[in-house]
Amino acid sequence: MEAARQHVESGQRGLSLTELLITLSILAITAAVAVPALRGTPDRSLDLALRDLTFALEYAREMSRATGQRHGIAYTSSGPTIQVIRLNSAGQPVRDVINPITKRTYILSFAQDSRSALDSLGGGIQWRGNCSEPNILVFDPSGFVRCSDPVSTQLNSAQLFLRRNGQQRTLVVDGETGRVAFDVSPNL
Does the N terminus or the C terminus of the chain have fewer Cβ atoms within 10 A? Predict the structure, then answer.
């Protein structure tokens, strides 16, 4: 009792209800902003890889239409790597297509590029006949997808699976139209 009396007499007093409410409000706002930041951002590398691959396919398709030359992509699951290519007059893949943004050879290396790194890149490609190079998709000047050898073999369907940290994205190329679409599945 004596300590309480000395506290009051010394001119010190406690916080008012308004001051307490303001302090608690500031703490709540700070927590609401800080907690999501502490959890980290979701892994966007799959979405970035999907975007890059979609752009590469669309670029190859549009280059085929614009130039009249067959352009496409060649992919390898080891690496994983995608390269935009063109076919020369003999029908052989030429790896000299330039990325219009980077001004370098159009190669997507998902193992080295940390912003769009993948655990794996796989494919399910079905042709309407025999195809000697099944990992190369080539667009003809009309925008249809063909095999690079022989070019008369048309694509039935293609799905490319991009995987990272237990999640998957699927890129689909329509065999009838050559259009590129994707499916964003949250988990494998």
Answer: N
The mean of the pLDDT values for the chain is: 83
User: What are the Cα distances from residue 137, in Å, to 115, 117, 149, 172, 177?
Assistant: 25, 22, 10, 12, 14
What is the distance between the alpha carbons of residues 14 and 167, in angstroms, rounded to a whole number?
54
Helix count and strand count (H, E) for the chain: 3, 10
Burial of 125: CB neighbours in 10 Å, binned 0-12, 13-18, 19+: buried
How far apart are alpha carbons 33 and 49 in whole angstroms?
Answer: 29
Give which of 103, 110, 67, 60 is closest to 85, Cα–Cα.
Answer: 60
Angle at 79 between CA 89 and CA 71, to 5 degrees: 20
